[in-house]
Specification:
The protein has eleven helices and five strands. It is mainly alpha-helical and 275 residues long. It folds into four domains: 75 residues; 53 residues; 92 residues, no CATH class; 31 residues, no CATH class. The strands form two sheets. Strands 1-3-2 form a three-stranded antiparallel β-sheet. The chain has a two-stranded antiparallel sheet with strand order 4-5. α1 crosses α2.
Length: 275
């Protein structure tokens, strides 16, 4: 499912405030069209009648006058579209990587399903009285459990604390720790996970709401830190986001003035108090 990104203060922006209702609708529907068809902000003039806005050609003139759209040879171009939304090349690569992860998941679970079916058939075929043979067969069919980390291995807890501290979505700490103990086999691998999380946060993860960021357990299970570090996938952080922080009160990401950033104020509470 595709999404567009609209800044929460966009309705109060000086370019948006003077728009008529029809022009505002045309602007939003145009953004949806660009993301659905991955046009990088290009809108052909011939599709305007499908946007559900009467006299769309005349309404588009409003968007041009305010600088939200500019005219092109074939239609219109949304101003600064790729500054706020991923371009076609990035979306395509992300989808390819998602498809590859899904295929790996299918292959893994298909193999497990076959192993479990064969193992259960062998076990159920053993007579009830042959407990020793049943246990021996079950031991052969089931994969051995990973050894519990030695008590002297403190690197697991230390690196998990760093990974969890840097990860934006704090939901599901206990399941994440269970996956961490099971799947992270060395301190070098743990260091690679932490470095990847820090890279992702620095490249723009702070712009996403927590519900759009997978829980840490899923990130670890799908081994996302092994994804290719393509520089084209690093969306530049706009200058608009100079002061961004994770709110300790409501848990959302806020961006505001330098003073608000220093105090880590909850902007939701500030807005409520001003009403």
């Amino acid at each position: 499912m595709a999404y567009i990104q609209i800044y929460v203060q966009a309705p109060r922006h000086h370019k948006i405030l003077p728009l008529s209702d029809a022009a505002f609708r045309l602007w939003v529907v145009g953004l949806c069209y660009c993301q659905e068809h991955l046009t990088d902000g290009a809108i052909p003039a011939v599709v305007l009648p499908t946007f559900g806005v009467k006299r769309a050609g005349q309404v588009a003139k409003e968007l041009q006058d305010t600088g939200l759209w500019r005219a092109t040879a074939t239609g219109f171009q949304v101003h600064d579209y790729t500054d706020w939304n991923a371009p076609r090349a990035v979306v395509t690569k992300r989808r390819q990587r998602a498809n590859e992860r899904y295929r790996r998941w299918q292959d893994k679970h298909a193999t497990n399903a076959v192993s479990n079916t064969v193992g259960n058939a062998v076990i159920n075929a053993v007579p009830n009285g042959a407990a020793t043979q049943r246990n021996a067969t079950q031991y052969v069919q089931d994969p051995p459990l990973a050894p519990h980390p030695a008590s002297g291995d403190t690197w697991r807890d230390e690196w998990f604390a760093k990974a969890y501290g840097a990860y934006p979505n704090k939901a599901g700490k206990n399941p994440a720790y269970a996956v961490w103990v099971r799947d992270i086999a060395s301190a070098d691998e743990a260091r690679a996970v932490v470095q990847d999380i820090q890279r992702r946060v620095a490249s723009g993860w702070v712009r996403l709401e927590r519900r759009f960021i997978p829980k840490l357990a899923r990130y670890l299970e799908e081994r996302h830190w092994e994804d290719a570090h393509d520089e084209a996938l690093v969306d530049p952080l706009p200058a608009f986001y100079k002061h961004v922080w994770a709110c300790p009160t409501c848990g959302d990401m806020h961006d505001g003035t330098a003073e608000q950033y220093e105090s880590r104020a909850c902007l939701r509470e500030v807005a409520h108090q001003e009403r």
